[in-house]
Amino acid sequence: MKTKWYIFFSCVVVLLFAASAFATDVHFKWNASSGTVEGYRIYYGSSHQGPYSNLLGEVGGTTTDYVATLDSSKTYYLVVRAFNSYGESGNSNEIVWPTAGSDITPPGDVAGFTAIPGNGNIALTWTNPTDTDFKGVMVRCRTDKYPTDRNDGELVCDKTGSPGETVSFTHTQVQNGMTYYYSAFTYDTSGNYSHTAHASATPHPAPTATISANPTAGYALLKVTFGGSGQAYYSTIASWSWDFGDGHTATGQNVTHTYANVASDTTYKVTLTVTDTDSLTGQATTYITVKPGIPLPPSKPTVQQ
Ligand SMILES: [Ca+2]
Q: What is the reported pLDDT for 22?
């Protein structure tokens, strides 16, 4: 049976192998063979005119295309054969890949890839590379190590966008206390995937705070000593911020504040806000009651003449 084959490369997609070599998903197409075809097999070798000793893949008889992952640092010589229960056809014409002019250059990595842990979420941010054929970014994650290729780990997001654009994505459905390792793969309009940029984060609960105050009530002018304590999770308390309820504020873990005189008993709500190193905040409140102060002593009396 003499069969003429037509093979076209219509799409090139790249994947990162475990080594530094790039890989490409190549979309093969060919015309259907005449006769009864149960399937097609795609073979390749490393030299022109064969031998084509490596089986790349097999598809059913009604399928006339195949997407294969190839290493773009190597050269492939490929053929297709049809088969049925009686046997396998001869080779199609050979095609070599990469072909001259193939775009096998991936875009640059994303810049400024960061993962900021939140309470039950992680905020991812990056800036797209400026390659003119940039198309998008795929982010994948694992909880034990950084994903090594675009099929490794779980898909977090796949966002197309513009070159140079800054992109944000919030990864929800994450577990507090677990560290997430992210790899960002850029790809171009030809489907070439970049080396990876990495970021990791451990989401965690917001910090908690408590206040001690002494005294909590008294006559104006009332000087109160405040002490703060805070509990942070997978981070540390970075700042302490006080609102004394009378329009005055202060920063620091332990502070004092003197309340001014009042016309009648006045209760102030005091709020302490603690912020951890991941910018998560927690608050505590207490109340201070100020009573009208005892008048100041009169001036020294004089004797009336
Ligand atoms: Ca490119």
A: 64
Give the contacts of 60 (CB within 8 A, at least 6 positions apart). Answer: 38, 39
Three-state secondary structure call for residue 186: strand
Token pair of 37, please? 């075809």
Q: Is the pTM of this model over 0.85?
A: no
Residue 23: per-residue pLDDT = 61
Instruction: Inform me whether the pLDDT recorded for 187 exceeds 80.
Output: yes
Burial of residue 85 (CB within 10 Å: 0-12, 13-18, 19+) is exposed
pLDDT at 17 (0 to 100): 34
Environment class of 17 (CB within 10 Å of its CB; exposed 0-12, middle 13-18, buried 19+):
middle
Q: For 54-72, write each residue's pLDDT tens digit.
A: 999 999 999 999 988 788 7
Distance from Cα 52 to the centre of ligand 1, integer Å: 29
Distance (Å, whole) CA 289 – CA 219: 9
Residues that place a CB less than 5 A from ion ligand 1:
103, 105, 133, 188, 192
HSE, side-chain direction, 13 A CA sphere, residue 114: 11
Burial pattern 40-55, b for ≥16 Cβ within 10 A else e, equals: bbbbbbeeeeeebeee
Distance from Cα 194 to the centre of ligand 1, integer Å: 9
Dist. CA 288–CA 218, nearest whole Å: 8
Share of residues in the chain with pLDDT > 90 (%): 74
CA of 195 from ligand 1 middle (Å) equals 13
Enumerate domains of the chain plus CATH numbers: 7-97 (2.60.40.10), 111-201 (2.60.40.10), 208-291 (2.60.40.10)
- 126: closest CA among 142, 115, 141, 140? 115
Mention every residue, 6+ apart, whose C-beta is less than 8 A from residue 154: 140, 141, 142
Confidence grade of residue 42 (pLDDT, cut at 50, 70, 90) = very high
Q: Compute the 3-state secondary structure of the chain and give helix, strand, coil in percent, each to the nearest 5.
A: 0, 55, 45
pLDDT given at position 189: 85
